[in-house]
Every structure is written in C-alpha cells, then in structure tokens.
Amino acid sequence: MKNKLQKGMTFLELLVAMFVLIVGISGVAAMLSNTMSASNSNVSRLQAAYLAGEGVEIVRNIRDNNILNYNGWHNGISPGSWEVVYDSMTLSGVDPANPNFLKIDNNGFYNYDVGSDSTFKRVVDININGDVLEITSRVSWQEKGVDQELEVISHLYNWR
Length: 160
Prior knowledge:
Helix content: 40-55%
Number of strands: 7
Radius of gyration: 27 Å
Number of domains: 1
Distance between the termini: 100 Å
Number of helices: 1
Strand content: 25-35%
C-alpha cells in the first residue's frame, strides 16, 4: 500500500524531469538559432570576398588586354574611384561616399543595370605609382543594422 507521500514524490519527479527537458530543448534551440545566424553572416562575407576579388580581377583583365593588344599597359585605367562590371572593359566613375548598390540578375551575375538590388556596394580605388597599379576593392553591406566592409588590396605591375 502506497502512502500519500510517495504519490506526491512521483508528481514532483515528473515536474523536475519536464523542467530539465524543457531547459535542454531550449538550449538546443538557442544554439541552432545562433548557428543559423552565423551561417547567414558567413554567406554574406563570402559573397563580399568574391565581389571584392572580382573588382581586382576586372582591372587586371583590362591591364592584360592592353598588353596583349600592344596598348599602353594602363590605357583606360586612371587613378580614382570606380565601379566595375565583370563583362565590361571600361571603368565608370563613382562617388566613393555614395556608391550604387550592385544588382543581381536572373543568372546570378552582379551588375549595376539589370536585376534586383542586392545588399552590396563595391568601389574600386586605383592609384598609379610609376609601373605599379595599387588597386583597393572595397565591398560594403549592412547586416542586422550593422555596417560591414571587406577590402582586397592588390598591386599590378607593368610586366611588359
């Protein structure tokens, strides 16, 4: 025969077990939420790194085409702040304090003309010092209300 104290202990044990289970599940849910947030942040940072690298590569492509076509090695490449697009051999001037948003088209390519606005802005700064082009490609974006920026710096030489 069970007494009333034993019945109460069983109910109390059930409450403690439920509390422990709820705390455990809440901890796992919070951890998953933080992981998802960090993952989204990493995706934006990776996209920004690719866009910044692309900015340098576009200028490198212009320089290489100049050399291959026997033009001046920095023909069409002037000091200043520029917008660059992957399928163009020209630089477009931009106010570095107020750059345009990059757009992403249906094929996933970034440009300034067609597609929906992305969260990214890119400015490529060029300085020429003798036979050296110093290229700084900066990509900026906002994430959770916080300004983010990633910068890639490269030096291109007149190797001709």
